[in-house]
Amino acid sequence: VEIRQAIINVNKQYGFQPDIIEDVLLSIKNALLPTDKRDDFHPQNFDYIGTEDEYGYRDVSLYGKWGFIDGSNKIVVPLTYNSVSSFHEGLAAVECKGRYGYIDLQGKLVIPLQFDLGYSFAADIAKVKNAGLYGLIDKNGKIVLPIEYDSIGYVSNGYIAIQKSGKWGFADTQGKVRIPPKYKKVIKQFTKGLAAVDDGNSTIVIDKEGNIKQYL
C-alpha cells in the first residue's frame, strides 16, 4: 500500500502515463516471486526489448532496470540490474551499482559483482577489468590470467592477444602466456596456426610457438 501511494504521488507530480503505477507494482511483485510463479509481461510494457539469443531469451528494460524474458514473454530474470549483456555459453554479464558479475540461465548470480567491467564468455573464458587493467576468468569466476594487462583482444584459433607495458603477446584459453608481450603491434590474430605481428622493424608471420615463419 505504501509503495502504491508513493508511486501515485510521483505520478501526480510529474504526470506520467496512467498505467505506470500498475507496471511498476507488477515489476516489483515479479522480482520477489520464484521464476516459475512470475506473471507474463506484454511486449508493450517494456521500454526496450532486445533480440532473441540462442536460448530464446531477450534482454528487456523497464524504468531503467534490466532483466530477461523468454519466448512466451515470461520474466526469467527479474528486472533488478542496471545493465545486462546477452547470454553466451550459458552466462550473462550483469551490472549493479557499478560492479559486474555473471548470472546463469536461471538468474542465479554465480560469479559475484566484483569487477569494474565484465565481457561475454567465449571459449569458456571472459575478459574482466579492474582498476584500469584487464585479465581473464573462467566460468567458476577463477582468475586464469592475472588482471594486470593494458589490453586483451578476442579469442581466435585458441589464442588471445594480450598487451602489457605497450607490448603485445599471446595467451591461450587456459590463461597461459604462450608468447610473452614483445611485439609493437598485432597485425592479424591467429588463423590456422599463424599470426602477423610488427616487431618494430618488420611485419612478420609467427606460429603458435613464436617462431618466425615469414617476413612480409
State the low-pLDDT regions, or none.
14-21
* Total beta strands: 20
Biggest sheet character:
4 strands, antiparallel
Enumerate the strands of the largest sheet in spatial order, edge to edge or round the barrel.
1-2-3-4
The ordered H/E elements are HHEEEEEEEEEEEEEEEEEEEE
Mean pLDDT: 87
Quick take:
The protein is mostly beta strands and 216 residues long.
Please give the structural blueprint:
Elements: H1 2-14, H2 20-32, E1 48-49, E2 58-62, E3 65-69, E4 75-81, E5 83-84, E6 92-96, E7 99-103, E8 109-115, E9 117-118, E10 125-130, E11 133-138, E12 143-149, E13 151-156, E14 159-164, E15 167-172, E16 177-183, E17 185-191, E18 194-198, E19 203-207, E20 212-215
Antiparallel strand pairs: 1-2, 2-3, 3-4, 5-6, 6-7, 7-8, 9-10, 10-11, 11-12, 13-14, 14-15, 15-16, 17-18, 18-19, 19-20
Helix pairs in contact: 1-2
